[in-house]
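Q: What would this chain look like folded?
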Amino acid sequence: MSDLALGIDVGTSGVRVAAIDHAARVVSFAASSMPAALRDHDRITQDAAAWSRGLDDAMTRLASMVDLARVGALAVDGTSGTLVAVDDRGIPVTVGSLYNDRADDTSIAVVKRAAPAHAAVHGAASPLARALRL
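A: My prediction, written as structure tokens:
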């Protein structure tokens, strides 16, 4: 029977999962912490493998509290603006560039030349400029 929805939140400090019933009650909840982001001057990154390990740990904890066969819906969210390059199998090939990571000056200049002045892709935190570095 599918009487639960599963919500997964992947943040910079940990992964949280909740099983919720049709009345919007939390049936079970589990969390797993992750190592802190790495800071190197303006760079703020995180090992993308930590996200997977955090999810595995939180899901294992949740599965010990509730039968996951009851889950009929899934919602996933993550920290906005966080980027990671993946290969054709979806395997991360770079560290994650966190939402508050700073793009390098070369990438910022490329975006400035290519994008219209009114576009929302300019600036040091631009996901487009940070993606160019990936």
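The helical segments are 48-63, 105-114, 127-133.
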